[in-house]
Amino acid sequence: MTQTTTPPALSEEQTRRILQAVDAHFDAQLAFTQDLVRFPSLREQEHTAQDFLYEAMRARGFAMDRWKIDVKDIESHPGFGPVTVSYENAFNVVGTYRPAQQQGRSLILNGHIDVVPTGPVDMWTRSPWDPAIIDGWMYGRGAADMKAGLAANLYAYDAVRAAGYEPAAPIYFQSVVEEECTGNGALAALLRGYQADAVIIPEPEENMLVRANVGVLWFKVRVQGHPTHTREMANGFNAIDAAYAAIEALRGIEAKWNAEHHCHRHFEHLDHPINFNIGKIEGGDWPSTVPPWCEFDVRAAIYPGTTADEARAQIDACLRDAVADPRLGGTPPQVTYTGFYAEGYVLEEGSDAENTLRECHQQAFKSDLESFTTPGYLDARVFVIYGDMPTLVYGPKSLDIHGFDERVHLESLRLITKTIALFIAQWCGISATQAKAG
Questions:
Q1: Which partner from 48, 234, 331, 431 sits 20 to 30 angstroms from 174, CA to CA?
Q2: Which runs of consecutive H residues, i.e. helices, occur in 322-399?
């Protein structure tokens, strides 16, 4: 990473040309986003969408890097999340733009290609892979979270070029996997050596900048029972009933952590920032048999500044102590960590990158940039904590991400793209292309 001098402010003419270029190519941007949404890039199935993005970046003349993540390369890092699936199709894609001569500041434009499961498809208004545009919104799984942002990164760059300018610093366009489950994709990109003077991640954040977000742990809890025929139910031990006892114990630590919110900077105003979600549960073998086993999956949030190891120690102790509940039959639950093992982060105020984003947002939106704290996970923690890079999570309005009829607001997306385009020009600096200069 090479720190250089701050480029001069954009002129009114440069700003106007870039903003007009975003408008001129916005229909193409939407069509590209729709094409991207049509790829069902669920976990373990991301490779075809990555192939599509690889070709889109290569066509722009970027130097291309596409690699399959090797767990052995990253598993010793403190930011690594345990892996329980095959990484056979877990490919990252990075396209690098390099100017003939660097003058400005380098930039990473990051986004994730993986999407969460759709749930029952018949509960969607239309197919989740049919990116319809209706009343100013684009629908589809991943349309908001975050394929619209990935496309915005590319089309913001295109707008700068179409306006007649070349960025004067390296730009790394990253499409990573595993954001929805471990964060290992962004971690693998960092450990591959990608560094820059700033990072933008256009997650769907309601036209605002994320000031802080929680860390996340994923774990599976398994409890054992003793099977009997239901006619002798009193002689058995019901593992599903025991699971309820374990869940209640976890609710206790969730309440304890939420009661401490006033002790954590940027979380003071949130009544319930720590959410423990019981996302999946299964158990038993037969309706007429007292169930001998039950297991459930948990997503637990933690405050920035609390390490994953510290949180794990408290969770493990909580479940060990729960054995005092007679519903657990004297056997402590077994806990296995299965994904996210991530610390939260705080974006400290006053960086040049944030100040530049504020200026560009004001020019695009004609309003001041607001910031907020989110109780969700973001890959920014990789760049902030382990890369020491100012990382701006900032993106368009959305509805129902991770739910049915997920959608992104198109006018918001247009203005976000304008902000990113102006940020590229202002942060990296620009020079006139040869065609314009001649």
A1: 431
A2: 352-365, 380-381
Hey, which bits of 150-287 come out as E strands? 165-167, 171-176, 199-201, 209-213, 215-224, 276-283
- Helix axes 26-37 and 12-24, enclosed angle (nearest 10): 50
Structure confidence by residue, pLDDT tens digits, 327-345: 888 889 999 999 999 999 9
Alpha helices (H) in 60-183, listed in sequence order: 71-74, 148-162
What CA dihedral angle connects 155, 156, 161 and 164, to 10 degrees? 130
And the tokens for 32?
Answer: 């590209």
Helix (H) or strand (E) holding 335: strand 334-342
Name beta bridge partners: 199.
108, 391
Radius of gyration of the chain (CA): 24
Closest by Cα among 48, 190, 197 to 113: 48
How far apart CA 52 and CA 71 sit, in angstroms, is: 24
The Cα 50–Cα 69 span in angstroms is 13
Domain with CATH 3.40.630.10 in the chain: 12-213+345-432
- In CATH, the number for domain 215-342 is 3.30.70.360
Task: Give the closest residue to 382 by CA, choosing from 116, 199, 237, 158.
Answer: 199
pLDDT at 2 over 70: no
User: Judging by DSSP bridges, how do beta strands 107-112 and 171-176 pair with one another?
Assistant: parallel
Amino acid identity at 207: N
The residue with tokens 């434009």 is 109
Name, in order, each residue with C-beta under 8 angstroms of 9's C-beta and a sequence gap of 6 or more. Answer: 426
Residue 156 DSSP one-character state: H
Q: Domain 12-213+345-432 sits in which CATH superfamily?
A: Zn peptidases (3.40.630.10)
**Matching residue, tokens 């090479």:** 2
pLDDT at 438: 33
CA torsion through residues 204, 205, 207, 210, sign: negative
Residue 137, Cβ neighbours under 10 Å: how many? 21
Q: Are 176 and 103 in contact (CB under 8 A)?
A: no
Q: What is the pTM of this model?
A: 0.95
